[in-house]
Amino acid sequence: MNPFESAPARTMQGQFTSADTHKYSVILPTYNERKNLPVIVWLLAKTFQENGLEWEIIVVDDASPDGTLEIAKQLATVYGEDKIVLKPRAGKLGLGTAYIHGLNFVTGDFVIIMDADFSHHPKFIPQFIQLQKSHNLDIVTGTRYRLTSTPYLAEATPGGVHGWDLKRKLVSRGANFLASTVLSPGVSDLTGSFRLYRRPVLQHIISVTVSKGYVFQMEMMVRARALGYTVGEVPITFVDRIFGESKLGADEIVSYGKGVWTLFTTV
Ligand SMILES: Nc1nc2c(ncn2[C@@H]2O[C@H](COP(=O)(O)OP(=O)(O)O[C@H]3O[C@H](CO)[C@@H](O)[C@H](O)[C@@H]3O)[C@@H](O)[C@H]2O)c(=O)[nH]1
Ligand SMILES: [Mg+2]
After folding, report:
1. What ipTM was assigned to the predicted interfaces of this complex?
2. Per-residue pLDDT of the chain (267 residues; tens, 9 = 90+)
3. Which residue's CA lies nearest to atom 30 of ligand 1?
């Protein structure tokens, strides 16, 4: 039984002034997130519940060797199978295709894409929703590298990164500076992957996106801007994971580089 079902809907610190009847679907890709999953799900459920929002979480697990799927099954029993929707795949097929797969099962009006390892904290979600509502935006994205030139920017903390070594910080910062200057002016964090989309907008962009790995996020945003969709940014602090390891290995970095080059030369 869903422990929240009988609890009355509350508004948290007056976040939303009028009732929001939309449904919010989170796509949560997981690979070896056994230790993170229960807490991130709990915090997501709490955030939606406290804001009186309808929600579901689509967990796309890629046969994690650490047994993440078994934990997800237990969570579905606790919260309800309508809330924790399990859409596993038979092997590790990559982050980009995990989102595509998850989107097939989404029933909400808006889709939130985020990591399951607390680098993307659920506490920012109400700010995403608030910004979307106030400007009727198609997409809201978390930014670690806010620019004053961003057209729709939430008034919040400056954003940033904690826990990465200098090399990864420099690579990420450099790639984003270059990409946001050349490929997609007005969006300061193209490699980030904490985003809220209108569902039809996400479906449209995904249908024209070709990347499959980590570069997927950058291509999605470049295509979104080229298609004329409106994008707002919420400054977020990205905190590196405590449990487990990043899956951004050498192969992914090489394919990331190739994908960025393709974007620069084709879009
Ligand atoms: N289903 C599935 N999930 C995956 C896979 N690879 C990674 N994930 C999941 O995707 C999320 C992000 O993976 P991490 O391995 O933690 O990524 P990261 O190195 O922290 O990279 C982050 O920052 C990058 C840019 O700075 C982002 O591009 C990336 O999306 C992510 O947010 C986690 O929830 C992880 O379990 C996969 O092949 N399949
Ligand atoms: Mg991570």
Report:
1. 0.96
2. 444 444 444 444 445 556 889 999 999 999 999 999 999 999 999 999 999 999 999 999 999 999 999 999 999 999 999 999 999 999 999 888 999 999 999 999 999 999 999 999 999 999 999 999 999 999 999 998 877 667 778 876 777 888 788 877 887 777 777 777 766 667 888 888 899 999 999 999 999 988 876 678 888 998 998 899 999 999 998 888 777 777 666 666 666 667 766 766 666
3. 193
Which structure tokens are listed for 141? 């994205």
Amino acid at 238: F
Q: Is 33 in the pocket of ligand 1 (CB under 6 A)?
A: yes
Domains located in the chain, CATH noted: 23-266 (3.90.550.10)
| CA 8 to ligand 1 centroid distance, Å | 35
Q: Which of 238, 213, 178 is nearest to 187 (CA)?
A: 178
Determine the residue of 26, 27, 31, 36 to mutate for testing ligand 1's pocket, defined as the one with the most ligand atoms within 8 A of the Cβ atom: 31
Backbone angles phi, psi at 110, to 5 degrees: -125, 150
Sign of CA dihedral 114, 6, 133, 155: negative
Q: Compute the 3-state secondary structure of the chain and give helix, strand, coil in percent, each to the nearest 5.
A: 40, 15, 45
Q: What does the alpha-carbon distance between residue 161 and residue 153 come to, in Å, rounded to a whole number?
A: 18
> Closest residue (by CA) to atom 6 of ligand 1?
95
Please say whether the beta carbons of 151 and 186 come within 8 A.
Answer: yes
Cβ of 96 below 6 Å from ligand 1: no
- Contact 150/186 with Cβ under 8 angstroms? yes
